[in-house]
């Protein structure tokens, strides 16, 4: 919103683009299930993805298992890294691995915003010389 109102537009648009690139795996690991070729979460905290089809049981042993989910939840964004930029792909760690509306709504909104900028000819990558913070 600040960028649209002309408040540090280039910097905010560049920052938003960097956040999406980070989530999609610019640092070597994508937090979006099934996206990229360098790895993504295999143990999202999501019942539909981790439980086998009926009539097989789904119980506590599934939550504590280190096996990858039996179903791939393509396109889902997990919670992501901790404050120290560490990440453990553990189903039981719901803070880092839960697929939730609050995580995914912001992500989808940001992607939509960047797409809108592309359509209108405003490309955040071309608005400044700054690298994304995680690559500097």
UniProtKB/TrEMBL annotation:
The active site is at 89, 98. It is an enzyme of class 3 (hydrolase). Residues 8-110 form the Glycoside hydrolase family domain. One of its GO terms (biological process) is cellulose catabolic process. Its EC number is 3.2.1.4. It comes from the Eukaryota. InterPro entries: 6-hairpin_glycosidase_sf (IPR008928), 6hp_glycosidase-like_sf (IPR012341), Glyco_hydro_9 (IPR001701), Glyco_hydro_9_Asp/Glu_AS (IPR033126). Belongs to the glycosyl hydrolase 9 (cellulase E) family. The keyword Cytoplasm does not apply. One of its GO terms (molecular function) is cellulase activity. SUPFAM superfamilies: Six-hairpin glycosidases (SSF48208). It catalyses: Endohydrolysis of (1->4)-beta-D-glucosidic linkages in cellulose, lichenin and cereal beta-D-glucans. It comes from Batillaria attramentaria. This is Endoglucanase. It holds the Pfam family Glyco_hydro_9. The keyword Transit peptide does not apply. Keywords: Carbohydrate metabolism, Cellulose degradation, Glycosidase, Hydrolase, Polysaccharide degradation.
